[in-house]
Design goal:
Blueprint: H1 4-10, E1 18-19, H2 25-35, E2 39-44, E3 47-53, H3 54-61, H4 73-76, E4 83-84, H5 90-100, E5 104-109, E6 112-118, H6 119-144
Parallel strand pairs: 1-2, 4-5
Antiparallel strand pairs: 2-3, 5-6
Helix pairs in contact: 5-6
């Protein structure tokens, strides 16, 4: 399987979406909806301090009766952030996400934020690789039977 760096390069949207911990959850939800994403990396003074997801708001905010217009991101974000390096494999990322029940992983290269992987990104990569293998096998079978 491809390393994380390759998966990040294949993403259509390579922008890393961030938000300040002092922003409201309403601002975070609006940003996620606008960009059609499920998570934002929370950054303060150039440092990653957390990650916030739609799921965080659903479980820690809405279900607890917290108003998104008044609740700061820092109150609902997940911290510390689990991260991987660009050299990690898809399999390792999937194992981490499954074990820790995560849908997003931050990617750091020498301490620098270089991307965010979603479970969807990893599944898409697996499907792509499987399609390639199937096409190669079909080509091999049809080429050797004639």
């Amino acid at each position: 399987m491809k390393p994380v760096a390759s998966i990040l390069r294949s993403k259509a949207d390579q922008v890393i979406h961030t938000i300040a911990p002092s922003a409201t959850m309403r601002e975070a939800l609006e940003a996620m909806a606008y960009d059609d994403i499920g998570a934002l990396v929370v950054v303060e003074e150039g440092q990653i301090v957390g990650i916030v997801t739609e799921r965080d708001y659903a479980r820690k905010g809405a279900l607890m009766g917290r108003d998104s217009r008044e609740t700061p991101v820092r109150a609902l974000m997940t911290s510390p952030v689990m991260y991987v390096s660009p050299q990690e494999s898809n399999e390792h990322c999937m194992a981490l996400m499954t074990e820790h029940r995560l849908r997003h992983l931050v990617v750091l290269d020498d301490g620098n934020l270089v991307g965010v992987l979603s479970m969807r990104d990893l599944v898409r990569d697996i499907i792509s690789e499987q399609k390639f293998v199937i096409e190669q096998l079909q080509h091999y079978i049809s080429g050797s039977s004639g």
